[in-house]
Specification:
mainly alpha, 14 helices
Length: about 300
């Protein structure tokens, strides 16, 4: 009698583990984006984003063929509501890409990392106030400590961090829209980039006609790096979308501290200024992560004990 429940629990555990692996993979890939963008820093940010959009399509199409997901793509294109939601998410992610690339080009990786430090707090807020998710006491303490660190860093910067706030808001909204849109990770991303492709193509065509485009036979290294914008863009977003459909928003929010931490370290490597405010924020966030992780492990063990008791 208990076999179906046991199987269901195992499926849930497997989905959770897969979601965690996808989230970790996505944030690791996002964490190493600064060196890649620095390597093509001579290319204007909007042109980099246009190439990210166009080169994502063939790479995404290959994945869709391999996973036999064309029927899902056709279904999504025929559903007006899904298409509208994906149009909205496409605009959000394109805006996020542009601001992030611009920040790195302006040697402002610290503020970009601040945006992604703030982002998890917005995920937690969305999870609580929009989706009705509940936080345990330890999670509330962790959120409070992380919030304190972000506030200190915001005040210590001496100016309102518009770049950071905009990055955080756009990506939180993107995550929420993708979580609530009934379409798979890769089909959804393929449709998003397909919707943006005509604009990107016309812009790059105009640059070529004006003789100011960066893509061409004169610089093979730049050409290769711009083509790589496809897999560099697609892989982490697919992993993120897979994770978002399997994990709570609050869990995704805290895992996302991995990427800005790596970006923060790259900022130090590239010689950006490290202040006392940065030190306080960095320390507060890592303490918050420790509290959250300890609570998650304890809660998971308690849940497993409860399942075993119910099975008995």
């Amino acid at each position: 009698m208990n076999a179906p429940d046991s199987g269901s629990h195992k499926d849930a555990d497997a989905a959770l583990r897969f979601g965690l692996l996808c989230a970790v993979g996505a944030y690791l890939l996002w964490g190493v984006m600064p060196p890649y963008i620095k390597a093509i820093g001579h290319v204007p940010p909007i042109e980099i984003v246009a190439h990210r959009i166009l080169w994502s399509i063939p790479f995404g199409a290959i994945l869709i063929v391999l996973r036999q997901q064309w029927p899902e793509v056709r279904t999504a294109f025929s559903d007006r509501r899904v298409l509208l939601m994906l149009t909205l998410s496409a605009l959000m992610i394109a805006g996020n890409w542009l601001i992030y690339v611009w920040a790195i080009a302006q040697e402002n990786i610290l503020e970009a990392s601040l945006g992604y430090f703030i982002n998890p707090l917005m995920y937690v807020a969305a999870g609580v106030f929009v989706l009705g998710e509940k936080l345990r006491r330890a999670q509330i303490i962790a959120v409070g400590m992380a919030t304190f660190g972000v506030i200190v860093l915001t005040i210590g910067s001496g100016a309102f961090p518009w770049t950071a706030i905009t990055l955080a808001a756009l990506f939180t909204a993107y995550g929420y829209v993708r979580k609530t849109t009934p379409v798979g990770a890769m089909p959804g991303l393929f449709i998003e980039t397909s919707l943006l492709a005509p604009i990107a193509f016309l812009y790059l065509l105009w640059l070529s006609a004006m003789g100011s485009g960066s893509f061409g036979p004169a610089d093979l290294e730049t050409d290769v790096l711009l083509v790589l914008a496809g897999p560099v863009t697609v892989l982490p977003l697919v992993l993120f979308a897979l994770a978002a459909r399997r994990l709570r928003l609050s869990t995704i929010g805290f895992l996302q501290y991995m990427a800005p931490t790596m970006q923060f370290l790259f900022a130090l490597y590239y010689g950006e200024t490290f202040t006392l405010a940065h030190a306080i924020c960095f320390g507060s966030i890592w303490i918050a992560l420790a509290v959250f992780s300890f609570d998650a492990v304890r809660a998971n063990r308690a849940e497993k004990r409860a399942r075993i008791s119910q099975g008995a």
